[in-house]
Specification:
125 residues; alpha+beta; 5 helices; 37% helix; 14% strand; globular; Bacterial SCP orthologue domain-containing protein
């Protein structure tokens, strides 16, 4: 379970700051702005799907463990999802579907529990 509860207003504000970029209407936001949106939206996923069976990685900003099931303790987790910040945020707000992201190789997902389609989007705008 996440160590600290996520303030929904803080998440919404952080993600709203990157929406023009996601829509192609602005340049990539400054690194701290992008990092906040990624980290807070990942922590929201962690709250929505508590557990430790899937590791979701969005380098270089964050990684979280979520989804109920067998706990991973050492080495490379058997269930890993990895993507870039833009793709993660598009998934998090529903601008990109899970199947399309995986099909277009924007997301790598390995393991029997690595399908996040039922958990996304974590925010709605």
């Amino acid at each position: 379970m996440p160590s600290k509860s996520v303030d929904p207003h803080e998440v919404r504000a952080a993600v709203e700051a990157v929406l023009p970029w996601l829509a192609g209407e602005a340049e990539q936001p400054a690194r701290p702005v992008l990092a906040a949106a990624v980290r807070l939206s990942l922590r929201t996923l962690e709250q929505v799907a508590p557990g430790r069976s899937v590791e979701v990685r969005v380098p270089p900003f964050a990684a979280v463990q979520c989804v109920a099931g067998p706990r991973h303790t050492r080495g490379t987790p058997p269930n890993v999802v990895e993507t870039d910040p833009r793709t993660w945020l598009e998934l998090a707000v529903g601008r990109l579907g899970w199947a399309d992201a995986v099909g277009d190789a924007k997301v790598t997902a390995s393991g029997s529990r690595a399908d996040l389609s039922t958990l996304l989007p974590v925010l709605r705008f």
